[in-house]
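Figure S7 source data.
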Amino acid sequence: MKIDDFVLENWLNPACDSVKNKIYLGGSCVLPMTVEELFELTGESMDDFMEELKHMNLGYGNFEGTPRTRKAIANLYKGVEPEEVILVHGGTGANSTVVLTMIEETDNVISIMPNYQQFYSIPKSIGAEVRQIDLKAKAGYKLDLDELRKAVDNNTKAILFTNPNNPTGSLLELEEMQEIIEIAKSVDAWVICDEMYRGLKEEYMPSFADIYDKAIVTCSSSKIYSMAGTRVGWIICHDLETRKELFNRRSYDSICGGVFDEWIFAIALEHADKIFARSRKIVNENKAKIDKWLDGHKYLHQYADSYATTYLIHYDLEVDAEKFCDDLLDKKGVLVCHGDCFFLPHTFRITLSHAHNLEEGLRLIDEYIEELVAQGKAI
Ligand SMILES: Cc1ncc(COP(=O)(O)O)c(C=O)c1O
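Tokens for the predicted pyridoxal-5'-phosphate complex:
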């Protein structure tokens, strides 16, 4: 099976490895926690945990996933039962399990762009027709529902997208979610939504899993939960027969999850309110600094308020995005993620969530932009 280059991961991950002692503003995970910090934050006893760990059986875990973890995940939704939770390896494992199970060569799928690349390149590699709908900057990266309505037909298997959106952070309101469901229902299609960044609003953020029987949602420990290293991902699916197919596909990939990973993540989830509060604080503080920096900026613009952990920034300079970011890293030691990863030219994604020396990084970006302007690159 031939598949496209995974542009974001193949560019960002090696760049990330080279970033030691530089300023990393490229990522999307909220500042990862240490084990110690997790126990301080949750108030759980580290001693009890260490005692449990000593006696932990290191054989295969529960094939359907650690019951404690599935229960804690179900509690993040309204009307989701623990048996409707499928544990997999990371959000990446969740997305690929879903797409490889659900999509066939004879289907068409709708991909709302920008999207996580698994949601259009895997269907394409299967041979399915991928119909892209672009969120547009000038519309605040909001979905044009009429465009979606026109794009679906009776052969549409699924509508695939991320909400909140990566990299723009734009968010669907509940009414828009309901409209999408109506459109999906009109052609009996699935809604497949990557909800990796759900949870940053103070109030409860509805999930597609709360409101549509033919929704499949994916999420993981990586972003809002700051525990990417645990590699716990999950799929929520209400339909029993489809769930069996998803489990069957998972058997080809991983048999079951890691016992330690699922255990420690359950501890975090049982205190999800505290984890969310920590993440919101980090993101909101960084957001305030970046908003101040962008306010009235001569060369930089940002079009959507972000409910995720990144901003997508447009720049008015005649330099391709990949070169812009490669040179910024080489010359100034600042890593941001280039917009060509999302097929959004003249843009870069900057973190709201993981930033030592954020202000110094922003200053260095300005310095770099001034050098480009001096070279006559301003548009
Ligand atoms: C939208 C989206 N989905 C999935 C993933 C992969 O998540 P994980 O680290 O849990 O595999 C990412 C990671 O950047 C992402 O941004």
